[in-house]
Amino acid sequence: MSNTVFILGAGCSKLAGAPLINEFLDTAYHLHTTGEPTPQSEHFERVFKAIGSLQLVHSKAQLDLNNIETIFNTFEIANTIKKLPGFHSDEIPQVIRSLKELIVTTIETTLVFPVIHAKLAIPRPYGNFTKLLDYLTHEATPRQTISIITFNYDIAIDLALYLSGIRYDYCIENTDCSDTPLLKLHGSLNWASRTTDNAIIPLTLSEYFKYYRITFPEERRNVTIPIGTQLKEYFPKHSQEQVNDEPFIVPPTWSKADHYASINSVWARAAYDLGQAEHIFIIGYSLPETDVFFRLLYALGTVGNAPLKSIQIFNPDPDIQHRFDSMIGPGAKAKYGYNTCTFEDAIAKIQARF
Hints:
CATH superfamily of the largest domain: TPP-binding domain
Number of strands: 12
CATH topology of the largest domain: Rossmann fold
CATH architecture of the largest domain: 3-Layer(aba) Sandwich
Shape: globular
Number of helices: 13
Number of domains: 2
Mean pLDDT: 89
Strand content: 5-15%
Helix content: 40-55%
Structural class: alpha/beta
């Protein structure tokens, strides 16, 4: 049971270099057109060809072609109805695979991890966040039990917890997590799916660093960690498991039900923790209209016996406040607040509450 729940969105990894939702495709296109050809180039070309084909829908419908989540959702639905302009129906699954490769490559290229004195360090501002977690669990009065829910595919929070010595559990196999729950509702770059039954097998960072050594030349100030790209190499070689080529990542859409069986314990634990939470802090998450699943998770999950003392939103964009205003029910309005600030500023505000 966790009485304080943190919900982290894409804005939390912005300072570490990861692009936001509405910047993602522009960033990917820039990487594709300015870099040298790579094995991933064909995936980028396939995705941008598919996005270009979607221009045809503008004569009859509005579609945000600059939003990576909208594109992900569109391709998933196209696969369901077997219809995508410019592609045969049996080509659509490959488009989705290519989009996942594009997402993995873009995140791994842009998300940088600092190197201090030739040692890997925690990316900003996750270092201050782990200090906040340590304060809440060891010094705050009363001491708090923590659960972290995130929609991010990247491993910034994973690495921050690992380097801080905070034991965490993805709760993939069951809801009874022995360590701090780290609940990645949309999957993760370091989660593989087994080819035989699609079971999720995470590559933990402790296991990863046993086999992959990252060198730190003195002149380097940061490095990237290509863990998602290396999954298909690691598992057959070191665990005898056969896994799918791309990491397990899930679009924020109604069709998530198709993927849900593989991570139902993760979502179940998230619902349980929300129901027991006294404090809920939502940081850097924009509550996109497409993510119906989170709205339902919040609605059903927050039904519990624990008295809710606060639900606070932290996001620098004031234009999305209405989304949260419409989600919060009358029983929680008195405990609710929207704070126009960054992840970095939110950390100090949250600590001041305790």
